[in-house]
Amino acid sequence: MTNLTQKQLDSHWMAYTGNRQFKQDPRIITKASGAYYTDDKGRKIFDGLSGLWTCGLGHNVAEINEAVAEQIKTLDYSPAFQFGHEKSFQLSEKITEFLPTELNRVFFTGSGSESVDTALKVARAYWRKKGMGTKTKFIGRAKGYHGAGISGFSVGGIPANRTLYGQGLDSYHLPHTQVPGTEFTNGMAKQGAERADDLLNLITMHDASNIAAVIVEPMSGSAGVIVPPQGYLERLREICDQHNILLIFDEVITGFGRMGGDCGAIEFGVTPDVMTMAKQITNGAIPLGAVAFKQEIYDTFMEHGGPEYMLELPHGYTYSAHPVACAAGLASLEKIRSENLIARVKEMSGYFGDAVHSLRSSSTLITDIRNYGFAAGITLAAPDGEPAKRPFQVAMDMWEKGFYVRFGGDTIQLAPPFITESEEIDRLIDALSDSFHKLA
Ligand SMILES: Cc1ncc(COP(=O)(O)O)c(C=O)c1O
InterPro entries given for it (predicted)? Predict the structure, then answer.
């Protein structure tokens, strides 16, 4: 049991948490190793979402721990502006090994939200540098999640994350790709690519001369794993090319293996102009985000940078390329490669997908199941008009049984660590089946 006092519990306003409910019945995690947490009651809990889509390698990874310890003893911090340290250059090169070759210039941030902010700011500034300063509007997508910043919620499309916050950036939204008739598709649906054509309507409405960029997650994660329909991303790419609009892939979840490919762009075969990343870079051990750009974007800033002592891009964060985070990133990405973990995800994703779809019969309230790689989303109906209630009940029941799964909106989300064994998938699915049965 936790020794925390009520005063301590009350003093922390927790992120994206039902604080009142949590503080009555705190779920306190004390340790983690491999695919498991330990809670304050000493129970072992399977990590069904790899932290927050962060810890594909599992927890307490010796190589990352050692790299962090070594780095903090050697160089704990160095100024992010005007001075450098070797690890950031090594890591940027390493990151590009996981991306399409055209994305070869990497900017560091401290989180996914900062990466999105960076991508959007650079998109506007890029057009201005090219003499097209009217290109300032952004196009996001319904159900998209792009972080908690003002820019992220503006282009994001999850209503609950938007309604409280008033005016954001000048942004418009494509429809999501959950097309009726594609429910319970294992992998990419055949229908739905036509939803990319809505971009043409937005271009007609606002004119390409006013639009800086389109930003989408190749696979929407936080909205409950919405997999791109076949041909959809290709069509977005085509329209952006035809109308001189930058295409940004937000790969904060899909980067570095979750899809069974090096990143979503490679797995789905479509190259954006800009890619945002975070989470899995350091395996969640230390906060770090990154944004990769096509070289032409970088070169545009260099060519229009003024005298060489001047900044080409007045933008950055105190913790951009933090040396300890870079050390963690290098160790994490090296381990993903040396253990061949992305191939493992690909190999086991069929097993995982079939297992997840076997849940369909466990409750009449399940209206959809979607999956790709090591990610799955299960939608639950809300006959009483309270869509978030049943996912919460399922997640709490799972926690009681020793499983952590994410509940968000009307969905349950699964993203097991890349190291998960098939028996662990079986146990997770059995436990979920039991929890769903209790709902019916
Ligand atoms: C696609 C995507 N973009 C951005 C973010 C924001 O990342 P962070 O929470 O590190 O700011 C997230 C977080 O879940 C995400 O899934």
Answer: Aminotrans_3, Aminotrans_3_PPA_site, PyrdxlP-dep_Trfase, PyrdxlP-dep_Trfase_major, PyrdxlP-dep_Trfase_small
- Ligand 1 near 255 CB (within 6 A): no
Q: What total of structural domains would you count in the chain? A: 2
* Most informative mutation of 54, 117, 145, 276 for ligand 1 (most atoms within 8 A of CB): 145
Residue 320 placed within a domain? yes
The answer to whether residues 315 and 352 belong to one domain is: no
Q: Give the residue from 203, 220, 329 showing the smallest Cα distance to 264.
A: 220
Q: Ligand 1 centre from 1 Cα, in Å?
A: 31
* C-alpha torsion angle, residues 84, 89, 95, 97 (rounded to 10): 170
Q: Closest Cα to residue 56, out of 312, 344, 269, 251?
A: 344
Q: What is the pTM of this model?
A: 0.98
Taking only the tens place, the pLDDT of each residue in 63-80 is 999 999 999 999 999 999
Residues 221 and 103 in one domain: yes
For ligand 1, say whether the CB of 253 is within 6 Å of any of its atoms. yes
Write the residue with the smallest CA distance to atom 12 of ligand 1.
Answer: 147
Q: Residue 287 is part of which domain span? A: 65-338
Per-residue confidence (pLDDT) for residue 327, from 0 to 100: 98
- Check if 260 has its Cβ closer than 6 Å to any atom of ligand 1: no
Q: Is the pLDDT of residue 2 over 90?
A: no
Q: In the β-sheet with 103-109, what is the strand arrangement from edge to edge? A: 103-109, 289-294, 274-277, 246-250, 211-216, 137-141, 171-174
Residue ending a domain, among 294, 317, 338, is 338
Cα–Cα dist 190/139, whole Å: 24
Mean pLDDT of 119-141: 98
Same domain for 195 and 126: yes
124 band by pLDDT with thresholds 50, 70 and 90: very high
Is 1 part of any domain? no
147 Cα: distance to centroid of ligand 1 (angstroms):
4
The residue from 338, 359, 385 where one domain ends is: 338
Rounded to the nearest angstrom, the distance between the alpha carbon of 282 and the centre of ligand 1 is: 14
